[in-house]
Amino acid sequence: DYMTGADNAALDPAASAFSIVYLGEMGASGGADYAVSKGDIAGAADGFALRTTASANEVQFFVNGASASGGPTITDSALFSGNWCFVGTTSGTAQSLYAKKDTGTSATTATATTTHGDVANAVALIIGADNAGASAFMATTFRAFALYMRALTAAEAASAQNYLLGFPGYRMPYGPVAFY
């Protein structure tokens, strides 16, 4: 099963900075499946995703823009066991992916530098699949999702992770355009 958020201009970051926050399990390692997508990423259309790759033990925040595509990847077999909170951020030229487990394990971070350009598209926001729910389904348990039209700082990413993982004394950063 997957969840669909109808296409809306508020969900299209264009070429600007944005961040996604996802809390849930990541499904199978090496499955090339999508936890979150906006666009037909596997079909090389503009958009963004949090996904597992076809390589074992990899989770990637992927941005496919009009200028270029890419994004940071974290490789760790532990990512496929239990609840994790992932935060993917991009400034438009640099991306970060933060991962933290519900047991309080210290956060893991990966970075990339891709000047992606416009990522706007007319495809629905999907949790649990790619291409408006037509492919790359992820067999997982989704718990929360947020989309920000700005790059969260490392401190804000940590606050979002701690809040969603249930650690006391934290809040979600201000201003999400979507929060499920």
Summarize the structure.
With 180 residues, the protein is mainly β.
Task: Give an overview of the whole structure.
With 180 residues, the protein is mostly beta strands. It has 1 helix and 13 strands; from the N terminus they run ββββββββββββαβ. It is globular and about 40 Å long. It starts with a strand and ends with a strand. 43% of the residues are buried. The model has no long low-confidence stretch (mean pLDDT 89).
Quick tags:
7-stranded antiparallel β-sheet, 1 helix, globular, mainly beta, about 35% strand
Roughly how many Å is the radius of gyration? 14 Å
Beta strands, count: 13
Helix content: under 10%
How confident is the prediction overall: mean pLDDT? 89
Strand content: 35-45%
- Counting H and I runs of at least 4 residues, what is the number of helices? 1
Q: End-to-end distance, in Å?
A: 16 Å
Net shape: globular
- For the report, how would you describe the main beta sheet? 7 strands, antiparallel
Can you write the helix and strand succession as a string? Answer: EEEEEEEEEEEEHE
Helix-strand makeup class? mainly beta
